[in-house]
Amino acid sequence: MKAKLLLCAILVAAPTLSPAADVTITSTNSTLKVTSGITPGFQLPQVMDWTVDGRKILVYPSSPWNFIDVQHFHADAHVDTTQLHAQGPMIGFAGTVTGGAVYTVDGGAAGTGISRIVEKADIHNKTADEMVVQLAGMGYKPPREDLFPPPDYTGLDVSGTTTVFVQGNALNYAITDPPYPPSKVRPVDSFTGLNPLLNENFTIPPGATLTMITELKVKPHVTTLCDLHPAACNRLTILRP
Q1: Cα–Cα nearest to 62, from 190, 217, 211, 219
Q2: Which of 47, 49, 98, 107 is the most exposed place for a label (fewest CB within 10 A)?
Q3: What is the per-residue burial (b if ≥16 Cβ within 10 Å, else e) of 102-120?
Q4: C-beta separation of 65 from 97 below 8 A
């Protein structure tokens, strides 16, 4: 019997919930504050503030990671000084599904407006059944703008990639040693602007771990001729010798 978990990103705790816990990490010109809010007794990854040279950029964490009840939440320690770690059980599974994430901020020189953040999130399905989850990549735009303010990228060039794969079984995770477990890699999303991965079904086999890795990079937008004359750039030009 399959255990189905259809996780819609817009059902995450609303930004007005309190109290909330947050952890902030810093790298040169950048800080990343990750906030988890409490909703009916659960502390779920909720929202991130990515601040680059004083400019705050709103970022939403990935799904199904945002359905983890975060109980272990800190910077530094067993991760790097520019990283934070969060971990806990998934709501509704009594510890048989657990999740963890490491966030990294990699800032540029002061005044450049250049920065990079990375989210690596794992979901471990310890049950004997398949799980069907809904994926949303870090940096997506929530469909309900009346409940969740959309990110504002005005004057910025934001680009990124999201990689998703599952690996392992109840006996083993590593593909380097027997008994060799299965592994499946989803096509990588490379994008500019908002992350296009939103509400896509994905199956986690019994005992396997789902891994999602998203990198977001930002830099100031430089005006181009296409910005000044968009009609000219949209015109189909045929070059002849």
Answers
A1: 211
A2: 49
A3: bbbbbbbeeeebbbbbbbb
A4: no
- 129 sits in which H/E element: none
Residue 224 above 70 pLDDT?
Answer: yes
Residue 81: count other Cβ atoms within 10 Å of its Cβ.
10
Rounded distance between C-alpha atoms, residue 97 and residue 130, angstroms: 11
| 72: CB partners within 8 A, 6+ apart | 85, 86, 87, 88
* β-strands 131-136, 183-185 pairing: unpaired
Count the helix, strand and coil residues of the chain and give each as a percent rounded to the nearest 5. 5, 50, 45
Contact 47, 60 (CB under 8 A): yes
Instruction: Sheet with 20-27: list strands edge to edge.
Output: 20-27, 30-39, 42-52, 55-59
d(CA 88, CA 32) in angstroms, rounded, equals: 20
Give the count of beta carbons closer than 10 Å to the beta carbon of residue 24: 14
* β-bridge mates for residue 123, sequence order: 99, 210
* Strand residues in the chain grouped as ranges (E): 3-4, 20-27, 30-39, 42-52, 55-59, 72-75, 83-89, 97-107, 115-125, 131-136, 156-167, 183-185, 189-192, 198-204, 209-220
Given a cut of 70, whether residue 8 has pLDDT beyond it is no
Regarding predicted confidence, which is higher, 151 or 225? 151
What pTM was estimated for this model as a whole? 0.88
pLDDT digits (tens, 9 = 90+) for 18-73: 367 999 999 999 999 999 986 778 899 999 999 999 999 999 999 999 999 999 99
Measured distance CA(33)–CA(44) in Å, rounded = 14
